[in-house]
Each structure stands twice: as structure tokens, then as C-alpha cells.
């Protein structure tokens, strides 16, 4: 704004505005509150080492959730990320052992993930199957492929350097943390600042209007699934590198953890609204709840109960906001 | 007319939708055993009034009395309990259930949740009463619209309704079916039931109604016995107003020797268009006149590439359009402002700015990266040019009034400097101020040599703005008229007689 002709009135804080603010930034407020509580409760919590550890441990989940944000904003679901993770894990181990080439092995999961993501996207757009069903079915297929590759067993990787990706550090910081930060930054920009990102919002907000506006709705859908598959593959590369063994049951439950984190962050399950930072915050909110249980010595058996209750409360708060409109 | 207590009485009822005053202090008395017609142009408030009677809408102000008792809370459930049932224009049946299940849905005779056997008998009684030829076990989704409507009527009968509100009940019926419906209505009246008959088919009203309330711009013009009315007096009352909006000067017809911008030659679609042909020259505003459901919008969608054509051809700027999609149409300068701005036009959760730039984002992007400054500048300039209120392009578009949403929707297509614009219902649900802006905009476009295809249920505006106009009926172009000499009443007479001829054939 270059000129301000309107009278400037001090912004008044009404209860409705306060509630709207609370709803918009609930995940950040909770995250900050939890950080403070844990920092006060335990001197060992707020240390560089512990924080880096938390980020490192949650990198695979965060990668999947960040890409999954695009899928959910576009109005779809990807339930196959855990299965792609499994295929990626065993493929990395298998390729590495067959070729003896660590780099080739670790590059396999992202490439395969991308391909499986495109497969999902085509299933959704060509067959016109709801993404929930399409990816539920494809995850069975992918899971079976993972089992077939290993023959049901584990593939141990006994090659030097295979674990470098997952365990190595640069200046005290894990490579994985650097990868995550770069990925988040790129995805944040792609969603907010590019034509593709805008189309993702449009497709999720109103696919008919998007189509009539000349947006390639189907292509956009394929691309978000491809992105989700790529991220699941990257997560698999990090995961398999860490444990140096390919297991077909690796990553079980990751798909639901990712969706929970995305929704907890405040991205709308109905599509059209959301942000990358929200999902990152969602992932670490869930992570801190878990970490807090350990640090404070609470009964770990009720951890899931508390996490579930918090997600329900967050989604309920968002739904209350939608109804008032 | 009897002077006893009215069955349902509304007094001083008003209703606002966003920026539109749908009803303005309207009174209505509904008596036992009468067929009460509500007539008016599209947007006059007749449907809204019917829906308030049936509890679908709550009035903003005004009182409602049922059997002389004031009612403070009124919704569809309470209305049904008092015997008031609505048969909406958009039928509300469960497609996957059978006819019988739909008829008794919600009022199933049961003992502790277990359905009674005699339901089938009840159905037979009802069917005999209605004289409908319906299979109780047929799935409703498989029935034709006309038959689905019969199911709706039986549903009302199953609830032993005292008042049945019918919203445009004949709009999808053949002449023969309409006649049967009217016989049924007479029968229902004999039984002491009251019917509210919302329609713009004036002949039907003259035939079936006892009392008529004529609506115009959300107000009641008059209520009186149908015996005192003719088609002409009703049309006059429906239209008889000073023009609230002034239209820009009519664009002249283009010289017939001018190279056409768009030639549509005998197109047929799966959406019901048959061999439609039309021509638009640069700088012309061409109207498509027809009733709702005549195929106007389907013709528009086919031209815009939204629906595929199965026969015929479209030639735009001298080139045959092949593999025509919205994307290609937009890229070559042919755009459509769709009919339903919420369902087809806008992304309601997103900002005004994002909505305006969506169709031509590439203009504000380098290698796929949006240049926010350029985008803001263009969206802001358009918001200003169309005097959008508030002119803040960062707001969610869902929170704007209908008129401002419509302006944003127009702005979205102006971004691309189109050579041809299809406007489908550009002023639906828009206030008078915004209408004037939109009319001026349409005239300005034509002045710049843009071709315009204009569709509106407000026939008056099509007639006032268009250089030429085609009439559309049953998916076909029925003829071409000169809007300069054609009045709205001529048009209505024309359209209705066309409809009737086709109805008689069917």
C-alpha cells in the first residue's frame, strides 16, 4: 500500500478474533507451551543434543507429512506411504547388496517412490477411484512387492558407508536434519510461491472451478501423489541407512502418523486450506508429547491416549470454526 | 372465499441472502382447501416464500401463524408435524432406496423398529388415491424425473399433509403428465388439503389455482382470486415497474459481411444439445433466451470446451476447434463465466487475489514461480476498476457479498484480455448497484470488439443489452429474434408457446 486514505483505527481484539487466532495458531501455541514445560521440568531436555536428536528421529515422518500436506490440500489422501517406505527399504538393501554400490542402493528408494507415487496418481485420475480406496489397495500391492523382494526375510546390508546417510553428521548436525530443513524450505516455497502450489490449492478447494479455469486438475493430482511417493522413498532411504537392513514391515503405521500430524497442524481435511509449516509443527508436537512422557517419567502406556485426545481436540476446534461460518 | 382462520398466515416476513433482499415485508394467508399460486419472475421471491411456509428458510423478521397460533420456531420437522410438506424443485429422494421405501422414509409404521407388513397395503391405497403408475419396488435412482416427482407427491400424502408446497412442479413434466398432476391437485383440494403452487407457468396457474399471489422484487404486488386474472394482467403485474437499473445503450448489430468471431455449426452433445448453430461477430452482444433447463447453459459449456461435442463443429477466429477443452479455449481467448459462482466459479476458501489470478497465473509467473508484486498489482487494479467493496484483495472471497464475488469472477476472466466472453447468469443474486457495473462492463467489452454471448434468466437484461438474440428450447436453437422490438411479454408468450408445442408432441 503506497497511500492510506482510510482512517486508521486501532485493531480491536474481539472474542471472535481471539478464538480465530487461537484456532489458526493452536499448534504453535501448544508446541511452545510444551517446549517451555519440558525445559523447566528437565535440564536435559533443552540441550542441543537432545533437540537435534528429536529432529533426527522424526525426519522420515516429517518428510512424508510435508509432502502429504500437498496431497491433503489437493483434496486427496495417500494411505500408501508406509507401503512405499517398505518397498523403498528393501529395494535399497537389495540393490546395495546386489551391486555393492552404496550410492546406487540409497538412490533406489526415492526413484522407486516417485514411480509408485505416479502409479497412485494414475489410479486415482484414470480409474476415477477415490484416493482413499485407490491408495488403500495400492498399499496392499506395494506391501506384497516388498515381501516378494526379500522372500519374507531381512536383507542385512554389510557395506561400508551404507549407514553414513542416516547416522553421519556434519559439524555436529546429522545429514538428515540438513536434508529435512532443505526439503521443508523447498516445499514451503513450492506451495506458497509457484503456479503448481496455487493449482494444488485450487484443485482441493473446488475442482470444478479449477477445471473451468483451465487448470490441469488430473495432472496436478498425479503430481501430488508423485511428490508424496518421492518423500516416502527419501524417508525410506534414511530409515534403511540407519538400521542397515531392509525389512518389509518397516514403516508400519507411518501413513497414519503423517496424516495425524498434518491434521493436527491445522491443514483442512476437506482440502483447499493448509501450509507446510503446519505439518512440521504437527510432527514435532506429537514428537514432543512422546519425548515429554519419557523425560517426565509418565506411564508410556497412556501416551497414545493423550496424543489421540489432543488430535481430537484440535480437529474439534477447527470444525467448530467451520460451523460458525 | 371463507373467512375462517387461515391455515398458515405470514405477516411482514422479510428475508435477506447476503446482499440480496429476497423478501421484503410480505404477507400471505393460506386457507383450507385452496390452491394458492405464487407467481413472479425469477428472483421475485416466490420460491423463497414457499420455502418459508415449509420451514426450509427461517424469516429474518415477521410473524408466522399456524391455525391462528403464533409459531416462534419453524423448521422442516416442525412443519411436517403440523402437516406442512414441501416438494422442492431439487427433489430430495434417496436414489438407492425403492419407491416404497422413499415414500415412507421417516414415517415407517413400526413396532420397536421392526417394520410392519401392511406397509405395502398402505402404499397401494396411496397409489390408488394418487392414480400414479409407479412400481413400489423400483429404485428411485432409475426413475425419470417426472416419476421421481410423483414419488415426492406420494411422500407428502403418506405424511397426511394438510398443506403441500410445490415448487415448480411441472418444470420437468410433459403436457400429459402436467394435466394428471392438475387433476390430482384438484382431488387433494376436494379432500380439504391446501396447495401452495409456485410456478412461472401462467397457463397452469390459471387452470389449477383458486388464489394467486403475484410477486415482484421480493414484494407482494397483490393477492386475489384467479378468476379475476388473465395471463396478460399477471404478466403486467410481474413486470410492471419502473426499471430500477438503467442499461447502457444497445450495441448495434454487426454488419453481416463482417468476418464472424465464432461460428457454431450444428453441435450436438451428450448433455442434451441437438444441432445447435449460432454466429457471433466481433463487438456483438448475442443473447441466448430460454427457460431454465432449456439447454442455454449446456450450449455455453460446449462452446467453452467444458463438455465434449459429439457432432457438428465450432470455429473460433477462423480456425476449427479440435480436441476442444476449457484449457485450449482459454488459451485461444475464449472464456466462460459460469452460471453457478459457488459450485463452478470460485475457490471460496482462497483470497480474492488468488481467485482473480487463477486462470491466467502464467502471466504473473516466471518459470513457474509467481511474481507476487505483479499479481497483486493486476488484481488490485481490477478490484478498483470494478469498484469491489471492500477493495482488499487479501480477504477470503467466501466472505464477500454476492455482487462482489461476481465482480471478482468477472475480473478473473478479464485478466486474460479475452476475445470472446460467455456470460452465464452474470447478475444472479447480485444487488442493483453491482448489476449496473456489470452491464457497463459488458457494454465496454463489446465496444472493444470482444464478442459476448449472454445468458440470463432475467430476460429483460438480455433483451436490453443484446444486439441479437437466439431463443433456445429443448436443447435446440428455436429461432432468432430482434431484441430491439421484442418485449419481455412477447418473449414469455413465445417461449411458453414453444414449450407447449413440444410438450404436446411428447
UniProtKB/TrEMBL annotation, chain A:
A Pfam family matched in the record: BPD_transp_2
UniProt-annotated location(s): Cell membrane
Stretches that traverse the bilayer: 25-49, 61-87, 107-127, 139-158, 170-191, 222-244, 256-273, 280-299, 305-322
UniProt KW Cell inner membrane keyword: yes
Entry keyword set: Cell inner membrane, Cell membrane, Membrane, Transmembrane, Transmembrane helix, Transport
Topological relation to the membrane, as annotated: Multi-pass membrane protein
Source taxon at top rank: Bacteria
InterPro entries xref list: ABC_transp_permease (IPR001851)
Cellular component GO terms, alphabetical: plasma membrane
GO MF annotation terms: transmembrane transporter activity
Identification of the protein by name: Autoinducer 2 import system permease protein LsrD
Lineage: Bacteria, Bacillati, Actinomycetota, Actinomycetes, Micrococcales
UniProtKB/TrEMBL annotation, chain B:
GO cellular component, one term: plasma membrane
Gene3D superfamilies from the UniProt entry: P-loop containing nucleotide triphosphate hydrolases (3.40.50.300)
Membrane topology: Peripheral membrane protein
Domain ABC transporter: start-end pairs: 8-242, 256-499
GO MF term (any one): ATP hydrolysis activity
Keywords, in A-Z order: ATP-binding, Cell membrane, Membrane, Nucleotide-binding, Repeat, Translocase, Transport
Subcellular location: Cell membrane
PROSITE patterns, per the entry: ABC_TRANSPORTER_1, ABC_TRANSPORTER_2
CDD domains found in the cross-reference section: ABC_Carb_Monos_I, ABC_Carb_Monos_II
PANTHER family per record: CARBOHYDRATE TRANSPORT ATP-BINDING PROTEIN MG119-RELATED (PTHR43790), GALACTOFURANOSE TRANSPORTER ATP-BINDING PROTEIN YTFR (PTHR43790:SF9)
The name this protein goes by in its record: Sugar ABC transporter ATP-binding protein
Amino acid at each position: 500500500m503506497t497511500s492510506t486514505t482510510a482512517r486508521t483505527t486501532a485493531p480491536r481484539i474481539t472474542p471472535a478474533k481471539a478464538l480465530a487466532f487461537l484456532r489458526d495458531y493452536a499448534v504453535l501455541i501448544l508446541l511452545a507451551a510444551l517446549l517451555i514445560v519440558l525445559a523447566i521440568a528437565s535440564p536435559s531436555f533443552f540441550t542441543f543434543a537432545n533437540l537435534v536428536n528429536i529432529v533426527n528421529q522424526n525426519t522420515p515422518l516429517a518428510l512424508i507429512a510435508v509432502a502429504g500436506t500437498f496431497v491433503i490440500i489437493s483434496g486427496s489422501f495417500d494411505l500408501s506411504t508406509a507401503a512405499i517406505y517398505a518397498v523403498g527399504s528393501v529395494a535399497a538393501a537389495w540393490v546395495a547388496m546386489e551391486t555393492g554400490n552404496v550410492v546406487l542402493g540409497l538412490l533406489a528408494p526415492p526413484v522407486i517412490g516417485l514411480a509408485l507415487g505416479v502409479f497412485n496418481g494414475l489410479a486415482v485420475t484414470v480409474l476415477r477411484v477415490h484416493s482413499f480406496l485407490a491408495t488403500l489397495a495400492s498399499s496392499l500391492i506395494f506391501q506384497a512387492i516388498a515381501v516378494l523382494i526379500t522372500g519374507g526375510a531381512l536383507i542385512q546390508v554389510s557395506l561400508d558407508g551404507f549407514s553414513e546417510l542416516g547416522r553421519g553428521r556434519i559439524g555436529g548436525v546429522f545429514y538428515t536434519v540438513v536434508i529435512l530443513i532443505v526439503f521443508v524450505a523447498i516445499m514451503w516455497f513450492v506451495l506458497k510461491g509457484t503456479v503448481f502450489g496455487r493449482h494444488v490449492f485450487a484443485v482441493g478447494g473446488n475442482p470444478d472451478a479449477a477445471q473451468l479455469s483451465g487448470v490441469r486438475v488430473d495432472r496436478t493430482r498425479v503430481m501430488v501423489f508423485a511428490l508424496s511417493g518421492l518423500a516416502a522413498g527419501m524417508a525410506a532411504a534414511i530409515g534403511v541407512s540407519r538400521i542397515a537392513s531392509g525389512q518389509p514391515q518397516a514403516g508400519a503405521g507411518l501413513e497414519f502418523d503423517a496424516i495425524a500430524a498434518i491434521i493436527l497442524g491445522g491443514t483442512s481435511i476437506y482440502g483447499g486450506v493448509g501450509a507446510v509449516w503446519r505439518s512440521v509443527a504437527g510432527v514435532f508436537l506429537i514428537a514432543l508429547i512422546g519425548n515429554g512422557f519419557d523425560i517426565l517419567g509418565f506411564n508410556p502406556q497412556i501416551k497414545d491416549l493423550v496424543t489421540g485426545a489432543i488430535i481430537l481436540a484440535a480437529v474439534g476446534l477447527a470444525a467448530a470454526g467451520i460451523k460458525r461460518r | 372465499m371463507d373467512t375462517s382462520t387461515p391455515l398458515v398466515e405470514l405477516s411482514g416476513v422479510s428475508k435477506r441472502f447476503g446482499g440480496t433482499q429476497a423478501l421484503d415485508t410480505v404477507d400471505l394467508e393460506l386457507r383450507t382447501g385452496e390452491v394458492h399460486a405464487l407467481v413472479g419472475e425469477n428472483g421475485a421471491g416466490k420460491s423463497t416464500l414457499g420455502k418459508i411456509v415449509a420451514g426450509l428458510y427461517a424469516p429474518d423478521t415477521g410473524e408466522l401463524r399456524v391455525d391462528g397460533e403464533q409459531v416462534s420456531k419453524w423448521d422442516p420437522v416442525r412443519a411436517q408435524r403440523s402437516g406442512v410438506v414441501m416438494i422442492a424443485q431439487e427433489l430430495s429422494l434417496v436414489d438407492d432406496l425403492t419407491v416404497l421405501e422413499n415414500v415412507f422414509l421417516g414415517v415407517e409404521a413400526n413396532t420397536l423398529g421392526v417394520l410392519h407388513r401392511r406397509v405395502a397395503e398402505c402404499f397401494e391405497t396411496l397409489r390408488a388415491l394418487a392414480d400414479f403408475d409407479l412400481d413400489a419396488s423400483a429404485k428411485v435412482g432409475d426413475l425419470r424425473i417426472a416419476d421421481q416427482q410423483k414419488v415426492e407427491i406420494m411422500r407428502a400424502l403418506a405424511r397426511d399433509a394438510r398443506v403441500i408446497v410445490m415448487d415448480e412442479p411441472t418444470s420437468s413434466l410433459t403436457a400429459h403428465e402436467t394435466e394428471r398432476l392438475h387433476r390430482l391437485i384438484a382431488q387433494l383440494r376436494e379432500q380439504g388439503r391446501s396447495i401452495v403452487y409456485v410456478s412461472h407457468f401462467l397457463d397452469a396457474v390459471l387452470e389449477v389455482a383458486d388464489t394467486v399471489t403475484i410477486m415482484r422484487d421480493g414484494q407482494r404486488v397483490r393477492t386475489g382470486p384467479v378468476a379475476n386474472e388473465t395471463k396478460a394482467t399477471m404478466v403486467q403485474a410481474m413486470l410492471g415497474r419502473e426499471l430500477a437499473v438503467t442499461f447502457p445503450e444497445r450495441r448495434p448489430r454487426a454488419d453481416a459481411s463482417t468476418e464472424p468471431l465464432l461460428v457454431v455449426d450444428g453441435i450436438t452433445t451428450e448433455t442434451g444439445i441437438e444441432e445447435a448453430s449460432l454466429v457471433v461477430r466481433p463487438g456483438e452482444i448475442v443473447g441466448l433466451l430460454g427457460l431454465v433447463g432449456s439447454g442455454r447453459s449446456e450450449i455455453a459449456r460446449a462452446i467453452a470446451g467444458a463438455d465434449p461435442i459429439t457432432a457438428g463443429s465450432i470455429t473460433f477466429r477462423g480456425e476449427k476447434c479440435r480436441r476442444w477443452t476449457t484449457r485450449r479455449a482459454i488459451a485461444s481467448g475464449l472464456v466462460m463465466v459460469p452460471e453457478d459462482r459457488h459450485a463452478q466459479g470460485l475457490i471460496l476458501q482462497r483470497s480474492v487475489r488468488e481467485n482473480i489470478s487463477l486462470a491466467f497465473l502464467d502471466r504473473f509467473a516466471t518459470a513457474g514461480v509467481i511474481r507476487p508484486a505483479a499479481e497483486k498489482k493486476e488484481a488490485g487494479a481490477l478490484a478498483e476498476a470494478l469498484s469491489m467493496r471492500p477493495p482488499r484483495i487479501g480477504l477470503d472471497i467466501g466472505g464477500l457479498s454476492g455482487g462482489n464475488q461476481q465482480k471478482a469472477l468477472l475480473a478473473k476472466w478479464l485478466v486474460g484480455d479475452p476475445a470472446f466472453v460467455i456470460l452465464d447468469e452474470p447478475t444472479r443474486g447480485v444487488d442493483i448497484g453491482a448489476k449496473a457495473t456489470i452491464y457497463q462492463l459488458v457494454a465496454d467489452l463489446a465496444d472493444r470488439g470482444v464478442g459476448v454471448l449472454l445468458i440470463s434468466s432475467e430476460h429483460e437484461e438480455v433483451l436490453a443489452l443484446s444486439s441479437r438474440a437466439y431463443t433456445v428450447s429443448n436443447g435446440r436453437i428455436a429461432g432468432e429474434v430482434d431484441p430491439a422490438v421484442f418485449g419481455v411479454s412477447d418473449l414469455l408468450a413465445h417461449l411458453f408457446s414453444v414449450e407447449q408445442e413440444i410438450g404436446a408432441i411428447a
